[in-house]
Amino acid sequence: MGHVKTALLVVGCIVSGASGNLLLKAGMNAVGSPSEAGLSMVAWLLNVFTTTQILGGIVLYVASFVMWLGVLSLMDISKAYPIFVAGSFLIVMGIGATLLSEQLTPMRVFAAIFVMAGVIMGGQS
After folding, report:
1. Is 84 within 8 Å of 68 (Cβ atoms)?
2. How far apart, in whole angstroms, are the C-alpha atoms of residue 16 and residue 65?
3. Of the candidates 32, 118, 18, which has an alpha carbon nearest to the alpha carbon of residue 67?
4. Residue 100 contacts by C-beta under 8 Å, 6 or more apart in sequence?
5. How large is the greatest C-alpha to C-alpha distance in the chain, in angstroms?
6. Which of 12, 62, 86, 118 qualifies as a FRET site for 79, CA 20 to 30 Å off?
7. How many domains, the chain?
8. For residues 44-53, average pLDDT
């Protein structure tokens, strides 16, 4: 049962971290940069930290951080971190392409396959 608990913690960490980053990106797409918004830095920061997507992204990112601490207490970082990065990369790339209209090029797909192959091979060692 310990392996199942660890796997669920890793998956929760990956999903909440990737989702948090996606919400941060969606929020920043809505807010824009200070120069685009034509606002002072203080007014722009106020917009940033009162945007629902950004606040949700921060909450999910903090939740991911807390779960990550749990993961680190159960796994070697040299094994956990590549899994976290690869899983996050796949989620962000897929959802970025579908919901945020980011370009998904053949090279990015190849890179994702390459990263996953490396994580799988590293996990076997």
Report:
1. yes
2. 9
3. 18
4. 22, 25, 26, 29
5. 55
6. 62
7. 1
8. 94
Whole-number percent of the chain with pLDDT over 90: 56
Q: Which domain, by its residues, includes 118? A: 2-124
- The Cα–Cα gap between 26 and 55 comes to 11
Residues in contact with 74: Cβ distance below 8 Å, sequence separation at least 6, in sequence order: 2, 5, 6, 9
Q: Please give the Cα distance from 111 to 25 (Å, whole number).
A: 22
- Indicate yes or no: pTM above 0.70: yes
Placement of tokens 């120069």 in the chain? 35
| pLDDT band of 12, cuts 50, 70, 90 | very high
State both tokens at 62. 């903090």
The CA distance from 88 to 33, in Å, is: 25
| Helix ranges (DSSP H) in 32-105 | 34-37, 41-48, 52-74, 77-99
